[in-house]
Every structure is written in C-alpha cells, then in structure tokens.
Amino acid sequence: QVQLVESGGGTVQAGGSLRLSCAASGSIFGINVMGWYRQAPGKQRELVAQITRTSYTYYVDSVKGRFTISSDNAKNTVYLQMNSLKPEDTGVYYCKIWGLDVYWGQGTQVTVSS
Fold this sequence. Notes:
Oligomer: single chain
Distance between the termini: 40 Å
Strand content: over 45%
Helix content: under 10%
Order of helices and strands: EEEEEEEEEEE
Structural class: mainly beta
C-alpha cells in the first residue's frame, strides 16, 4: 500500500524559510509528475508547484521567485523549498504524485506570522 509522508511544516515569521519533504513508501509505477498543493482556511485547494520526471517545473504566479520544487526520482521524494514566506502562504500543504494512480499526502500545516 502506497503512502505519502510529508514533513517540514511549522510556524515561521514572515520572511523566513521552510523546506517541505514528501516521501512515498511502497511502489509507485509510472510516475510522471509530482507536485504540491495548498489550502488556506476558507479557500479551495490550489496547485502551488509541480515537477515532471524530466524536471520541467511549474509555479503559480504568487510563489515564483520564492519557492523551488525539486525531486529525487530514485527515492520517489519531492521537496518544496519556501523562502521569503508571507502570511498569505499560510495553509495546509499537500503533496500529490501522478503515476498509474494518483496519490495524496496527509497534509502538513504551514503558518506564517506577520
């Protein structure tokens, strides 16, 4: 059974940094894309960043230049380095892996105080 285990969330002051990790346990076949979503209180879940197996990346405009997504394909692990954090980055961050099936992590809370 595949599980995605996230870590690295927490509380930080505006301008600070956090690094999220998401590691898949179990076998995932045909991974094409790994990504991070976030959901702020009262808002819909949104795609923050994603990376393909060939390292093509996408970022939502609000995080460009501040967040960096990377992956270790051999370890089925995806990372999100978040710098210059803003209060509006607060939310629950979820990783998602697209393979032959789609897998979600359980979510990790990120809180940025002003």
